[in-house]
Amino acid sequence: MAKEMRIEGRELLRKSSVYLILILLLLTFSILSPRFLTASNLINVLLQTSIVAMLAIGQTVVMLTAGIDLSVGMVGILCGAIAAGLATGYGFGLNLGTVPAFLLTLILGSVIGGVSGLLIVFGNLPPFVATLAMMAVARGLTLVFTQGKPIAGLPEDFVFVGSGSVLGIPFPVILLFVAVVLAYLLLARTAFGLHIYAIGGNKEMARLAGVNVRRVELGAYIISGLTAAFAGLILTGRLASAQPNVGAELNLESIAACVLGGTSLFGGTGNVLKTIVGALIMGTLANGMNLLGIPSYPQLVIKGLVFIAAVTLDILSTRKRA
Fold first, then answer.
1. Segments forming the whole domain that contains residue 151
2. Domains of the chain: total
3. How confident is the model at residue 7 (pLDDT cuts 50, 70, 90)?
4. Where does residue 43 fall: left (phi above 0), alpha (psi -120 to 50 degrees), or beta otherwise?
5. Rounded to an integer, what distance in angstroms lies between the CA atom of residue 75 and that of residue 73?
6. What gap in Å lies between CA 78 and CA 84, rounded to an integer?
7. What tens digit of pLDDT does each residue of 99-147 get?
8. What DSSP string runs through 87-140?
């Protein structure tokens, strides 16, 4: 009886650890910096988190299949640049306006994700290789299209997507909330979501059970490309310009948010709600370090160490379950 209670206690601690870490960070930074708990700063944390969290939603879907998408950050930057060009006429000679630019860009993100999926599913390339190559392609296309220069002069409704608010709630946070709800319903309430978890748990068993593994995996990468495009639009709107030389850290942060939230690198375990908590941990950590005056280079070191710790815990947890 006592042994069972200890096991249940450890399991409860494991499941709630991500929330405890977030609470600990909030308490720590609120003590170290009087500005941390101000309304304006908390809103800033949410704005910072919204971009990584949007990327992490698609990343979670991919990682649940035991895959990984290393291209999400650069795909988001590319999509933001293309949307800025379509909305301003830069590079195309035709100004389509914000809404058509957004729709075409979301389609572009989905197509790029689909290409990565095709390389993995039908080309039999490892996800690491295929998405790393796609990251390089997206990076190169962004620099070619923008010539390495920012695209400014965005319409007001474009900028609103990244920095506007509705009833005091930042619009990116509203978009993120809608995306989280849709992703949660997709994974928890549909056959597609069930198949995602089944493939991550045991791909061969899922195939024998009648799951169309190729189609589901392809769908996962399309979703990742779509959420990357959304994140790119939010980032571009927030900066009020398309910046081709930003976003190098977004890939790492999206994966770290997933792993911190309990999504296993080996597939089959995780959910988007905890992923958002993981993203909040990353956002809170970055914001707190900025308030404490920690330089940007040491911040990268700290974020890297956090990622190593999260991956190590994931590996240890997987071994124990095995």
1. 46-247
2. 1
3. very low
4. alpha
5. 5
6. 10
7. 999 999 999 999 999 999 999 999 999 999 999 999 999 999 999 999 9
8. HH-TTTS----HHHHHHHHHHHHHHHHHHHHHHHHTS---HHHHHHHHHHHHHH
